[in-house]
Each structure stands twice: as structure tokens, then as C-alpha cells.
Amino acid sequence: xxxxxxxxxxxxxxxxxxxxxxxxxxxxxxxxxxxxxxxxxxxxxxxxxxxxxxxxxxxxxxxxxxxxxxxxxxxxxxxxxxx
Length: 83
Prior knowledge:
Elements: H1 19-49, H2 52-82
């Protein structure tokens, strides 16, 4: 007789649910797409016109997006395992 799925080694039950953090992750993901798309478009326009300062500013947006997504992912992981 097989054990129920909840009692197998591959099943991982979360310590706590994180609805607020999950909602925050969804908002940050949508904002990342919107801001990233605009930053990409403006980056292309800046490169086309030869404006290096604007291209660097657009690159900073990509770094900020990556940091925001990483922090939310880290918060979600910490909350699920230590909350």
C-alpha cells in the first residue's frame, strides 16, 4: 500500500501562507513588465539618437527592476520558511 502524497519526501508543506507577499509579488511583476517595456523602448530610442546619458538612465531602470524582483522573491522565500 502506498503512502498518501502528503507523507512523501517530495511533499513540502509551507510553514505559513503569504497572501500579502504573493499579492506584492504580482504587483511587482506587473510593474516590472510595464516599466521594463518602457525602459527598453526608451533605451532603443536613446541609442538610436546617440544620447548616452539617457541610455545609462534606462539601464539603471533594468537594474532597479532586477533588484526589486530579487527582494520580493527573497522576502517570499524567507516568509514561507521562517514566518
